[in-house]
Amino acid sequence: MSNLDLKPVATRCGGDASTGPVRELLTGRAVQLGESTEVRRLLPAMGRRMVGAWCFVDHYGPDDIADEPGMQVPPHPHMGLQTVSWLHEGEVLHRDSLGSLQTVRPRELGLMTSGRAISHSEESPRSHARFLHGAQLWVALPDAHRHTAPTFEHHAHLPEITAAGLHGTVILGSVDGATSPGTTYTPLLGVDLTLTERTATRLPLEPAFEYAALAISGSVDVDGVLVEPGSILYLGCGRRELPLLARTDASLLLLGGEPFEEEIVMWWNFIGRTDEDIRQAREDWTTGSRFGEVHGYDGARLAAPEVPQVPLKPRGRAR
Ligand code: MN
Asked: Are residues 138 and 81 in contact, defined by beta-carbon separation less than 8 angstroms?
């Protein structure tokens, strides 16, 4: 998915990771993508830009698209990040400038590493399921790997964890002895947890990681705080386990990682380190260089918005 904000604000991420456990409930905001799709943007949030290297989380649906085209995100570029396509219902057809053509289905991992440059489109197939429900997540690449060659991975079978009333699918990283095959560049975790009503359980955590939880459906008490769709609970670092209590049948995404200490500049679909990185990327997309071409998408590619006149400068570690 693309960040289709008409006037995206420059977002600086990094730093200021909490040093111990906290419970900080952050409310997402509704963002209109294109003409018909509204998403809940949970990261970046006011007061919390990143969780580990996770720097962008949109939760969309469930949307009834029975009589609609559904998702239609034209070709657009990425730089300096990985995109994770994660579905609970429906399907997304991914095309990219490497020539990848892949349908991603519920609880399969579509993982695109942009490295220095890639472009892609995402659309609901012409014949699609009635409901579309999922999340689009971005992972910032560390400086040492942000110029890496672009790749696309599709993992249809991901490792699972189970306990009484709990079923988890490991999206990226490792939890409770299960490790995702998806390529990562910093220590991080993404796991999808499905709980049946009244399940009380504790999930083992890595104390060096910071974590946050968001609900995809239903209601869960996460360390005693009610989490429902539309908000994200930041949990800080220093935890060895996480108490969960399902008030209803529910699904949670738990995101975590080693606090990302680098300062980054995030604008539109790009992550760089300097104002110049971003302006050059925009220029290259506009002039048709570096980002390649997506073939087969029925429509024009996305034009980049104007970069703000003010320099996109680092402003220190801001929450
Ligand atoms: Mn995208």
From this structure: yes
Domain positions in the chain = 21-257
Task: Identify residues whose C-beta is under 5 A from ligand 1, the ion.
Answer: 2
Question: What is the CA(59)–ligand 1 centre distance, in A?
Answer: 14
Burial (Cβ within 10 Å: 0-12, 13-18, ≥19) of residue 73: buried
- Expressed in angstroms and rounded, the spacing between residue 291 Cα and the centre of ligand 1 is 12
Ligand 1 centroid to Cα of residue 84, in Å, is 9
What is the Å distance from ligand 1's center to 304 Cα?
Answer: 13
- How far does residue 154's CA lie from ligand 1's centre (Å)? 15
For 21-257, which CATH superfamily applies? Jelly Rolls (2.60.120.10)
Q: How far is the CA of 85 from the centre of ligand 1 (A)?
A: 9
Predicted local distance difference test score (pLDDT) of residue 41: 97
CA 116 – CA 79 distance, rounded (Å): 5
Average pLDDT, the chain: 92
> For 158-168, what is the mean pLDDT?
97
**What's the pLDDT at 225?**
98
- Per-residue pLDDT of 225-250, as tens digits, reads 999 999 999 999 999 999 999 999 99
Provide the residue type at 150 as one letter: P
Distance CA(169)–CA(180), nearest Å, equals: 9
Q: Residue 217 — pLDDT band, cuts 50, 70, 90?
A: very high
